[in-house]
Amino acid sequence: MTTHLDVPRLAAGDRFLLRPWERGDLPLVQEASADAYIPLITTVPSPYSREAGEAFVRRQWERASTGTGYPFVIVRTEDRCPVGAIGLWLRDAHEGRASLGYWTAGSARGQGAAAAALRAVASWGLADLGIPRLQLCVEPWNTASARTAEAAGFHREGLLRSWQPVDGRRRDMLMYSLLSTDLP
């Protein structure tokens, strides 16, 4: 039996909103597909086509409908422009942990969107969903993503050597975590 998840709308600070994916988010998928890194670590299609973009959005809906996780779009509140994505993935929920992943389109980097989204989803996951441990992995060279995790209160735990395949090669990852006991 699968559990359908309702992806809520969440405030992410004063400047951003998190919401479920919509068909109108295809321009965001198209921009992300042209990024040198995002398609390597996500299911964002590269090269982009309308059909591939629509299939990506449908996969986000399926993740919620099959109970595998909560996929959100990060939207700037001032102009309702989608600027990135964040997901809370429940594959290990039976073990008391969930993982997070996030990305921001190149045109929106440096605005604090990912950190605001990560704080919002982490707080919601720990407090409202009652997940005891949240974790995320960042490649050691990706200092912007590491700063984002730390700005959201995540603690660096260590280096996982040859942890994950990226672009056909096994890559080291830094493990970050946030526990329910870390909340104020």
UniProtKB/TrEMBL annotation:
Pfam families: Acetyltransf_3. It comes from Streptomyces filamentosus. It comes from the Bacteria. This is N-acetyltransferase. GO terms for molecular function: protein N-terminal-serine acetyltransferase activity; protein-N-terminal-alanine acetyltransferase activity. Residues 16-180 form the N-acetyltransferase domain. GO terms for cellular component: cytoplasm.
